[in-house]
Amino acid sequence: MTLKDKLAAQRIYFLLGGLFITSLVVSNLIFQKFFYWHPVAIEIFGSRLFEISVGILPYPITFLITDLISEIYGKKRANDIVIIGIFTSLFSMLIIYTANAVPATTWSPVSDNIFSTVFGSTAIAVFASMMAYLLAQFVDIQIYHFWKRLTKGKHLWLRNNCSTFLSQLVDTATVLILLCVFHKITWDKFTGLLLSGFLFKVLIAVFDTPFLYLGVYLFKKRFQLKTNEEIALL
Predict the structure, then answer these.
(1) Non-local CB neighbours of 88 within 8 Å, separated by 6+ positions
(2) Is 53 strand, coil or helix?
(3) Is the separation of the CB atoms in 100 and 123 below 8 Å?
(4) H or E segment at 107?
(5) What is the pTM of this model?
(6) How many other C-beta atoms can be found within 10 angstroms of the C-beta atom of residue 228?
(7) In whole angstroms, what is the distance from residue 52 CA to residue 203 CA?
(8) pLDDT tens string for the chain (234 positions)?
């Protein structure tokens, strides 16, 4: 690979990292709004199917990106993005707490009460999300590379979905347990929200598989990569 190609690959890696971090931070900021999607009226353990937090919408993007980075750039680069995501989320929490601490003016369009209502639970949300995120992302990367070694770089759909399904179950269960412990949601909603959240993420994972195939295809064509070959960045 030429120096020009390596520089191009590095720029794309930074772009993917930016999309990953944006999706992660935004999911922590918007989590308090819950929405419903009812293609069919099904109730599970007291909760309507697919009544879930809007924070779940950008979150699956992070797993698609780490799978793509794992496939093209390797395990270490995927882990690097996960660690950077942790620091950016904690830094965003620090900024929000500083903004919450300073008093609003009398003419401020957003009062202290409104700001605290929207962002006041961010610390607990970020803590719960980070614990779930750490476990789920590392599980995702480990399983992805296990299947990649086992299949010698073939059957992309298998490692993508196997790693994502299990990691999303870990993520959903962990964050709900912590939110219940901190009394942000009640335990009677746990099972229903777990099943709704997990099933929604599974559907998204299945839906994003063609996009992963497309991304891998474009990378391999652009950088002339062979099966199981990874790009070593500068």
Answers:
(1) 21, 24, 25
(2) strand
(3) no
(4) none
(5) 0.82
(6) 12
(7) 14
(8) 788 888 999 999 999 999 999 998 888 788 778 777 665 556 665 666 677 778 778 877 888 898 899 889 998 998 899 889 888 888 888 888 888 889 999 999 999 998 888 876 666 666 777 777 777 878 888 888 888 888 887 888 888 888 878 888 888 888 788 778 877 778 887 887 888 778 877 888 788 889 888 999 999 998 988 888 888 886
